[in-house]
Amino acid sequence: MKIDIDGLQAFVAIADLGGFGKAAGHLHLTQTALTRRLQKLEAWLGLQLIERSTRRVALTGVGRDFLPQARALVQDIGGAMQRLREMGQHGHGQFTLACIPSMTSHVLPGLIVHYARRHPANHIRLLDGASTEVRQAVLGGQAELGIALAGERHAELAETALFDDPLVFICRDDHPLAGRTRLRWQDMRGQDLVGVGSLMATRIEMEAQLARKGITLTPRYEVQHHATALNLVAAGVGCAILPASTFRDGDRPGVCRRALTQPVVQRQVRLLQRRAAALSPAARAFVALLRETDLRTAEAGH
Q1: Which CDD domains does UniProt cross-reference here (predicted)?
Q2: Looking at the whole model, is its pTM more than 0.70?
């Protein structure tokens, strides 16, 4: 059923303002256009709502009964349209973000705090998972936006580079290598390394880049999460090689990070969205925040 919103507005304006002239002015219409809107509504209903005469305008019995409902409909629709307009203008609403877990250490929390201050009424639903899961969530429509690592391109996904995230050496302050500010990959040989997820995108990218330089590392311990690796490092079990964004000096007492060079191995973090999908106002506001934030500085803790 198609609701004649224009006709309802015309009827309510005429009834509330007491005449065609005032109603036409209120709706910024000519009296002829206003009359046509009312006639169209009455024709569709098969009922007369207003009695016209040269002296006065009066509601019919049906019109009087219908007026409260018509007024409520116009007010509800007007309020809904105004709320939508405000959403579009001010980025109000909610959206779902899919994100790799490593971004939740420092980068994403800082962004969310900034976003919440700018849009206190908005809500974010966060789906954390591996890069492949993030891509599938965006492609499948479960998330409007995704933050993942560079991977195989998909025709339906638009990808924007956010920042390059270098791998760093994490160890205890009393480790023999902790006194050096920069380390080489060859210094990793013989270390009790804690490796994170042999099938994780970061690990695969690291091993591929090192293989091109003829460097092979075999971790002594294998875990599935960055937080687990950090726990083991803090306990003195071994050392770890992790993305810089996952750890800042001072995060854990007695644990530090050191730069790794020759070569510098890094992963690229990207923003994903479906090409054919229009973003909600809340998601657009988040993208705008991303564009004006230097995530390299943010992840470094400056």
Answers
A1: PBP2_LTTR_like_4
A2: no
